[in-house]
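Input set for joint prediction.
Command: fold jointly, output tokens.
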Amino acid sequence: SRSLTVLGLETSCDETAAAVVRLDPDGRAEVLSSIVASQHEAHRPFGGVVPEIAARSHVERIDAIAARALTEAGVGPEALDGVAATAGPGLIGGVMVGLSFAKAFALARGLPLVAVNHLEGHAVSARLTAPAPYPFLLLLVSGGHCQLLSVEGVGLCKRLGSTLDDAAGEAFDKIAKTLGLPYPGGPELERLARGGDAARFTLPRMLAGHKGCDFSFSGLKTAAARLAETCETDQDRADLAAAVQAAIAAQLAERTSVAMRSFAQAHEARLFVVAGGVAANALVRERLKATADQHGFTFLAPPLAYCTDNAAMIALAGAERLALGMTSGLDAAARPRWPL
Ligand code: KG4
Ligand code: ZN
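tokens >
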């Protein structure tokens, strides 16, 4: 066995991303380049991602972004061992752009193609910069996803629970919008919450005491929207933001605690990884770290750049599959929905 160098492409939401990652035979990864071109500015006037604008933007930018990833990595196409692209789940127009680009690239260069599940990308993101041996418990918290997974090997994820309604990031974004904050609201809400007193408002504790690992944020969203209408001063809004952030962090920690108990019954390993954009939130991290400490789990969170959507995680997931001969045909489907 030898090391594998893979070009990865990510276009499932509003980031056009390309990266080159090298995977050594011992399982260690090295990110040779990772380019992320965000479209936030294009979507901000609409208060959320507009799928058609996203797809058009991907089609205009993907060639240049991929070329830049290769240039920055100092790797010519002839040095690549494969090309990996997100094939879902996500906004289908965007997924089709990245996957079709990857197919054309693979065909032109005679390279194997790996169609990657975006969630599997998030699942391996911690392995980009630190040893994270399988199996581990994963909390994936992003704008589109909120799930607890037992990650047991390449392509082997078991879902322990997921959200019954909104994803945690979606809840952050929607509540931020009712507080008058611009899109994407998660980081804005965190900033506003800094000067707030979380104890000022009582919010519903969704699924509190629930025995499973599922999440629900819709009740919180409704309650917060009602309270937002009563806010008059900046202090009121900061207090509400702090209360919302505390409620979301508490639910994530509580469900993770349940998942740790069941993971510990099935495995010797005690590694907990949090990934996805919401892992950028300091209070969320703090609460999850405390939960991990409580249960004797090692806490691992990828660097921020690999928490939010990026192509390095897709390249790595592709490389791990490629190493096992798990490649895809040029007829690989683009899937708007693709549960792990
Ligand atoms: O992983 P990601 O970049 O994209 C998806 O796959 O969804 O996650 C983006 C989500 C958005 O909902 C954003 O508001 C949220 O992560 N987010 C945050 C913070 N930074 C990003 N939420 C709360 N606090 C933050 N600091
Ligand atoms: Zn994502």
